[in-house]
UniProtKB/TrEMBL annotation, chain A:
InterPro entries, per database record: ICln, ICln/Lot5/Saf5, PH-like_dom_sf
Organism: Caenorhabditis remanei
Family under the similarity heading: Belongs to the pICln (TC 1.A.47) family.
Name this polypeptide is given: Methylosome subunit pICln
Gene3D superfamilies, per the entry: Pleckstrin-homology domain (PH domain)/Phosphotyrosine-binding domain (PTB)
UniProtKB/TrEMBL annotation, chain B:
UniProt keywords, alphabetically: mRNA processing, mRNA splicing, Nucleus, Ribonucleoprotein, RNA-binding, Spliceosome
Domain of life: Eukaryota
Annotated organism of origin: Caenorhabditis latens
Protein name as annotated: U6 snRNA-associated Sm-like protein LSm2
Location(s), subcellular: Nucleus
GO-annotated biological processes: mRNA splicing, via spliceosome
Lineage, opening ranks: Eukaryota, Metazoa, Ecdysozoa, Nematoda, Chromadorea
Major localisation: nucleus
Keyword Hydrolase: no
Domain Sm, first and last residues per copy: 2-76
Family stated for the protein in its record: Belongs to the snRNP Sm proteins family.
GO CC entries: catalytic step 2 spliceosome; Lsm1-7-Pat1 complex; P-body; precatalytic spliceosome; U4/U6 x U5 tri-snRNP complex; U6 snRNP
PANTHER family in alphabetical order: SNRNP CORE PROTEIN FAMILY MEMBER, U6 SNRNA-ASSOCIATED SM-LIKE PROTEIN LSM2
Single GO MF descriptor: RNA binding
Length: 289, 97
């Protein structure tokens, strides 16, 4: 059996919750499991010594039926993200990249295929066709990471809001239920490492496109076709006619045409507002009461 | 529209973006779109001990809806002008109703 010093506590999780009340219970659960396990093993060894074949069989059967809980207990972070049956996406695939390793933090979940679709980012393991799927609203941020001193290979880093994503953590079952009402954790970190690192920019850009195409649904501020008064207020942004098309970014390169005037795809009213705010600073004093 | 316009004026400036999951990222605002999705360059994380994985990231895309606060460079913000614009916009939207 593993001695206590080798009992792996996931570092990030541990440090991020150290000020919470759940830390003691988190540890206690582990201790209880270990103690139970030791008891179990003692009995097991006893009956082995007594050469009581039937009892040994029974114990082995119990272990089998319990799905070798000590494996979970000893190495909980190996598969922290529980992989599930995920059907292979068929529609709206922007990008399908084979031979992409997925990592939860630094633990490999295996080699598989990464699908970036119109609605979600899905990864499916090649070994057992299980995987996970994250919808765009759950993706907090994503980036390309190239610093190999921190992680051995270049990768696309994705931070996921666990509560929105529906992803389950294996560690969650070790904790008390009361930890559910906890405030948000730092987010799940998932890394995608393609065999061919030339796909990295492509993966990054396709996720970015997906993000742009999937704004928040329940937030009136982002509501494109709400029927309430919000529509009037933001009506001037109507994308199809004279507003900003989705995917239009304001960067240092093109900001001139957006602040200046005629290149601007805004209504008169919008332009006036903009000008009032940013264009005519000299009139600013007049407008103050 | 006001916020979008305002953030557009901050393109190229250094900002600190605080996310709803308590991650704070400091970086140069590269670009912003109508959903206030933001791209940052040259980022650093305020709390690298809690977020060690972010140290290796230099540029990133942040979903607008996950942003809690954006800390602005104070010398770039004309608070009087902004307050005035807010009042004006509020008055406009009330007049429309």
């Amino acid at each position: 059996m593993h001695s206590m010093s080798t009992l792996p506590l996931p570092k990030t999780l541990y440090s991020s919750v150290s000020h919470h009340r759940r830390t003691p219970s988190f540890l206690t659960v582990r201790w209880l499991q270990l103690i139970k396990l030791f008891g179990f093993f003692e009995d097991f060894v006893d009956c082995c010594n007594m050469q009581n074949v039937e009892t040994v069989k029974l114990y082995l059967y119990c272990l089998f039926m319990l799905n070798f809980p000590f494996l979970n207990c000893s190495f909980p972070e190996i598969k922290m993200v529980i992989l599930k049956e995920v059907s292979q996406p068929t529609e709206g695939i922007k990008l399908a990249a084979e031979n992409v390793q997925a990592f939860y933090k630094t633990d490999s979940l295996g080699n598989g295929t990464l699908y970036i679709t119109d609605s979600a980012v899905t990864w499916i393991s090649r070994a057992d066709s299980k995987g996970f799927s994250v919808a765009y609203p759950a993706i907090v941020l994503h980036a390309i990471s190239t610093d190999v001193t921190v992680f051995p290979s270049e990768h696309v880093f994705v931070m996921v809001d666990q509560r929105k994503s529906g992803l389950e953590l294996a560690a969650a079952e070790l904790e008390d239920e009361e930890s559910d009402d906890d405030e948000e954790g730092p987010g799940l970190e998932i890394r995608f490492v393609p065999d061919n690192k030339d796909c990295l920019p492509d993966i990054y850009h396709q996720i970015l496109k997906g993000q742009e195409e999937n704004p928040e649904e329940d937030d009136p501020m982002y509501d494109d076709d709400g029927e309430d008064e919000e529509e009037e207020e933001y009506g001037e942004m109507d994308q199809s006619e004279d507003g900003m098309p989705p995917g239009q970014w304001i960067t240092a390169d093109n900001i001139d045409q957006f602040q200046g005037g005629d290149g601007m795809q805004m209504t008169e009213e919008g332009l006036a507002t903009m000008k009032r705010i940013f264009g005519n600073r000299e009139h600013h004093d007049d407008s103050m009461e | 529209m006001l916020f979008f316009s305002f953030f557009k004026s901050l393109v190229g400036k250094d900002v600190v973006i605080e996310l709803k999951n308590d991650l704070s990222i400091c970086g140069t605002l590269h670009s912003v779109d109508q959903y206030l999705n933001m791209k940052l360059t040259d980022i650093t994380v305020s709390d690298p001990e809690r977020f060690p994985h972010m140290v290796s990231v230099k540029n990133c895309f942040i979903r607008g809806s996950v942003v809690r606060y954006v800390q602005l460079p104070s010398d770039q913000v004309d608070t009087q002008l902004l307050a005035d614009s807010c009042r004006k916009e509020l008055a406009d939207s009330k007049a429309k109703q």
